[in-house]
Amino acid sequence: MAKEKHVEGEADHYIKTLIGAVLGYAADGLDMFLLSFILVFIIKDFGLTTAEAGNLTLATTIGMWIGSYIFGLLADKYGRTKILSFSIILFAVATFLMYFVDNYTVLLALRFIIGLGIGGEFGIGMAIVTETWAPDMRARATSWVALGWQGGVLLAAVIPAIIVPMFGWRAVFLVGLVPALIAIYVRMHLKEPILWQRKKQRQQELIAKKENGTITEKEQKEYYYLAGMPLKKLFTTKRITATTIGLTVMCLVQNFGYYAIFSWMPTILSQKYGYSLAQTSGWMVISIAGMVLGIILFGILADKIGRKKTFALWYIGGTIYCVIYFFFFTSQASLLWGSFLLGFTVNGMMGGYGAVIAENYPSEARSTAENIIFGTGRGLSGFGPAIIGYLATGGSLIGAMSLVFVIYPIALIFMWFTVPETKGIEID
């Protein structure tokens, strides 16, 4: 990969880029989890069965998966900021329209559209940040972007508690207008990264040479490479194919653990340990605090000691701590305060995916790589809660959770043998 240095302007542009990406990912978390906190009211008003209610979440997940593919490809072709703004507006408008919905079919369709927009945002924001920030700060920058999701989730928990008692559950979805303001910020303050501009300019030069017949054989190969489908660039050689598979497994394992644990733990705490609703909420707040510290520290270490060593520390630490937490912590107090390290180990790895994916692919395929690799992992991990529930049938949920710390060593093996160390490299 080329080692050409790229400087993206002054410090204020670095900050504006980071703010735009963080706000975009926060809007993702907000829109994704608003449904979770008001689903009980929707079930009552629409008379939904448990299966129908579950389909609303499934529709969002499927939309996210498809959206990650579509918008990743579009961002590489037409520009990061344009497509990022569109994806944010898409889920913002769909969220706002849920205020007016009066039947289940429309509700289902809107959740799918919301998923499309959410799925597109992650990889594009990460591509913009990684193509802007200096190599020695890249992991730290993407870790701050990852924090946006946690902020959005916290807002999703707070907003319904304030709005529903005064205005009803429908008014919560008027918050959908807020992400539209974020999209305006992105369009006004974020420029297309210089790396992407250079590749598009080079492509236009080659097109002109091809049209006037002055293109050389070497340039012709370059032309077809740049004009080719970005998706193909994830599988151009055996090494890159192995890296793509390894990164996808890593994203799958992290998201599987996250969704499995944080979907089922409130139920486990309530049924097995007698937690009240307030105690369960406290557990969630403490675990999110652990996630925040874990994500920040992951980014710092990844820039200091390397991507692979940092991921290895978290995989090993997560495996050991999950065993301790699920099998040796049995009191309400230990489970409550121990959730800080649970969040730290299970979700701290989110601080590294944006950087490590970006550093393995060229700018003409970077948004595609970010979205397809992370989107595939996140999409498949959506089955995590269902798998845990199935394994717990006739047994215990705690026992079923053992699957979580079994899969971390698998991700460690894939990471160590398929993903190259990319700390400090210049991306092209």
- Rg over alpha carbons: 22 Å
Task: Tell me the CATH superfamily of the largest domain.
Answer: MFS general substrate transporter like domains
Percent of residues in β-strands: under 5%
What do the pLDDT scores average to?
88
CATH topology of the largest domain: Growth Hormone, Chain: A
Given this structure, which CATH class of the largest domain is correct? Mainly Alpha
CATH architecture of the largest domain: Up-down Bundle
Question: How do the strands and helices of this protein lay out in sequence?
Answer:
Blueprint: H1 11-46, H2 50-78, H3 80-97, H4 104-130, H5 138-167, H6 177-189, H7 194-212, H8 217-227, H9 238-273, H10 277-305, H11 307-328, H12 332-347, H13 350-358, H14 366-381, H15 384-391, H16 397-400, H17 402-418
Helix pairs in contact: 1-2, 1-3, 1-4, 1-5, 1-6, 2-3, 2-4, 2-14, 3-4, 3-6, 4-5, 4-14, 5-10, 5-13, 7-8, 9-10, 9-12, 9-14, 9-15, 9-17, 10-11, 10-12, 11-12, 11-17, 13-14
Characterise this structure.
It is a single chain. This protein folds into 3 domains: 11-192, MFS general substrate transporter like domains (Growth Hormone, Chain: A); 196-228; 234-418, Growth Hormone, Chain: A, CATH 1.20.1250.20. The chain has 428 residues and is mostly helical. It contains 17 helices and no strands. The longest helix is centred in the first third of the chain and has 36 residues, at 11-46.
